[in-house]
Amino acid sequence: MKRITILIADDEAEIADLVALHLQKEGYHIFKVSDGRAAVQAIESQTIDLAILDIMMPGLDGYEVTRHIREHHHLPIIFLSAKTSDLDKITGLVMGADDYMTKPFNPMELVARVNSQLRRSIQFSQPAAIPKSVLEVRGLMISPDEHTVTLYGEVIELTPKEFDILHLLVSHSKQVFSAENIFQQVWGDAYYESGNTVMVHIRTLRKKLGEDINKNKFIKTIWGVGYTFNG
Q: How far is CA 96 from the centre of its chain?
């Protein structure tokens, strides 16, 4: 069985040691660094399956490390940061992170999220036996096999989670999904009521699609219920 290696990049040694302890109990191999440049070096010299990044690190910050990873690699990224505002979370997700947790945190919840991200990463790395159909609605074209989205011929750069949410909504046009439904189907794990992960992803997805927040051209909010694709 392939050994799974997780990179922990955090300049707080106590935090890095705590995360490493819990993940090692799950059988994962851990590679720890304390600054952004070392994180990039580790990504380029080691086989890393998932990265847990702090944002405020010396050398290069977590955003810069994420930018480098997304230019060259497809591994899952989880931000673990003391920056707690919605703007910080949105920035992290837009940069390409797959998930965002704030400090202080529950180590067992972090382990659950790591497991979820790795399951999805392994699932998407498997070759598809049957080609999936391209979805095309009102100038929006979604190709599941190529994992690409275009709007009136222009490529829309989406993170993996944004793509999955959009594909879920478009492929079930008119069906209303609650935030819990979306989280369970896209993240493949139990819903964390304390988080606003789905809301943040929907917000950034709408922005990338050029939506007027009051018109909801593509993604419609059903207040008190959830979201649907306005096809």
A: 7
Given a contact cutoff of 8 angstroms between Cβ atoms, the answer to whether 53 and 62 are in contact is yes
Q: Please indicate whether residue 181 or residue 28 has the higher confidence score (pLDDT).
A: 28
Close Cβ partners of 145 (under 8 Å, ≥ 6 residues apart): 128, 131, 132
Q: What are 6-21's pLDDT values in tens digits?
A: 999 999 999 999 999 9
Q: What is the pTM of this model?
A: 0.65
Instruction: Tell me the pLDDT tens digit for each residue of 49-73.
Output: 999 999 999 989 999 999 999 888 8
d(CA 189, CA 204): 21
Joined tokens for residue 114:
């790591």
If one counts every other C-beta atom within 10 angstroms of the C-beta of residue 127, the result is: 4
Strands 99-102 and 135-137: unpaired
Res 132: pLDDT: 65
Helix (H, G, I), strand (E, B) or coil at 140: strand
Q: Are strands 77-81 and 99-102 parallel, antiparallel or unpaired?
A: parallel
Q: What is the pLDDT of residue 41?
A: 95
SS3 72: helix
- Enter the DSSP assignment of 99: E
Sheet holding 154-155, edge to edge: 135-137, 140-143, 148-151, 154-155
What would the two tokens of residue 156 be? 């829309």
- Pairing mode of beta strands 50-53, 77-81: parallel
- Does 147 or 22 have the greater pLDDT score? 22
Helices (H), the chain: 13-25, 36-45, 62-72, 86-95, 107-125, 160-171, 179-186, 197-208
